[in-house]
From TrEMBL:
It comes from the Bacteria. Keywords: Transferase. GO terms for molecular function: squalene synthase [NAD(P)H] activity. It is an enzyme of class 2 (transferase). This is Squalene synthase HpnC. The lineage of its organism: Bacteria, Bacillati, Actinomycetota, Actinomycetes, Streptosporangiales. NCBIfam families: HpnC.
Amino acid sequence: MLSQRGHSRELAEKARRENFPVASRLLPRRHRDHLMAVYGFARSVDDVGDEERPDDRLRLLAEFETDLARLYDGQVPVLRPVRALARTVQECSIPAEPFHHLIEANRRDQTVTRYETFDELLGYCELSANPVGRIVLHVFGETGGDHQARSDRVCSALQVIEHCQDVGEDYRRGRVYLPQEDLRRAGCPAVHLAAAATSPGLREVVAVQAARAGRLLAEGEPIVASLSGFARTAVAGYVAGGHATLAALRSARYDVLARTVRPRRARLLAEWTRVLMTMRWPGAGLQRLPSA
């Protein structure tokens, strides 16, 4: 088992591979610590759902759920990622529900491996991605107004973008997150997802999902203007990561099998600056959200 220092280094390295700055050094230490505690929990649960022996996954996920119950009952958790949440949960008054939803998303991954429509995929994002944004809002004490709905748009967009990047990796794990109706419409059978190069049909399907994610991101982006202080800086970084990754997908012409598509740091920084400058004032870019 890794030491605490080794575990922290491994977690930091995983965070650096994300599309967006998980806990930027532009933020105060207390916020970085809280965000890394949340990331550590989410990453650990995802790793259980993806990397442990299939026969062990549901049992291990149940252990996380039991340990969360310990934490919220005022007991000392057993699992390191849950113990690391204790101060964050207490200081930021974070409810248990979004953490349980993250566990449920990984439980669903063990039995649901295909999604017929994009709306069904968004239903999965309600468990796998949106809870993270809601937790982040608690970290910064920004839970009022339209924040939650706009955060959900941003988080769903980021999840769909990641699915676009990881088509081959997901398929090797037995999962297809690209909507089945879109794959059929493009004449793209499952065998295309295992190829060494991305077929024209598969590129078309990835491009459709990327466009949908872009619209979700645009709908959620005005949250930046409605936030204050360091919350605005952090969330602008997440939005910028989405835009930078969409740019990388376009630049790669949606070829997600022959190469690893990741955002360029320079593009991320440029997008981060743009989002902050564009969304400087409350109300900037705000419009009525469409119904979910």
